[in-house]
UniProtKB/TrEMBL annotation:
<dbReference type="InterPro" id="IPR001347">
    <property type="entry name" value="SIS_dom"/>
</dbReference>
<dbReference type="InterPro" id="IPR035461">
    <property type="entry name" value="GmhA/DiaA"/>
</dbReference>
<dbReference type="InterPro" id="IPR050099">
    <property type="entry name" value="SIS_GmhA/DiaA_subfam"/>
</dbReference>
<feature type="domain" description="SIS">
    <location>
        <begin position="38"/>
        <end position="208"/>
    </location>
</feature>
<dbReference type="GO" id="GO:0097367">
    <property type="term" value="F:carbohydrate derivative binding"/>
</dbReference>
<protein>
    <submittedName>
        <fullName>SIS domain-containing protein</fullName>
    </submittedName>
</protein>
<dbReference type="InterPro" id="IPR046348">
    <property type="entry name" value="SIS_dom_sf"/>
</dbReference>
<dbReference type="GO" id="GO:1901135">
    <property type="term" value="P:carbohydrate derivative metabolic process"/>
</dbReference>
<dbReference type="Pfam" id="PF13580">
    <property type="entry name" value="SIS_2"/>
</dbReference>
Amino acid sequence: MTRERDDQQVETLFARRHGPVDDLAADAETITRACAAMADRFRGGGTLFVFGNGTAATDAQHVAVEFVHPVIVGKPALPAISLTADIATLTEVANRDGFAEIFTHQLRRLAGPADIALGISVDGECENVRRGLNAARRLGLVTVALVGGTGGPIALDPAIDHVLLARSTDPRVVKEVQVTTYHLVWELVQLFLARTVATSEVVDERAA
């Protein structure tokens, strides 16, 4: 009986992940549009600003490293900054202006209209992430939200250009899908940039 119960639990653990992963594949067009927009900003000299709370703060740093120092040799490094990495700035802004402003304040001072803002939230409920994306949109940045569950207030905010949703109520599964999503984002951005370079080389050869 114990072995049978264990087998059922194992099946449940895997089954819990099937739907969200299938949904991720079904969202290929949405993800592709976001990556095309990001590649366009990078092409114009833009920088990616990434932010989130808790484990999403760690994800923000992970994303920044992926772009700044690609693990695949030969892929171009791209400018990216995690707004969660500077603890002195975070705590000073939180102390004086409130925790809800920790990303907004930084974006207003560091970002410009050529850039990209990527906010990460497990449940879409993080007010400081939502405010940061709002501030970014007002500055002219392309805004991308990587959220889970139903997407919460962040997914419903009209200031968000692209919503990438990990459809699960289990925060562990959300995190797993989000990691896969931002790895896909990196790969697709690199793909679009490589296509642009190849096209430019063909045009240059014809002109010569």
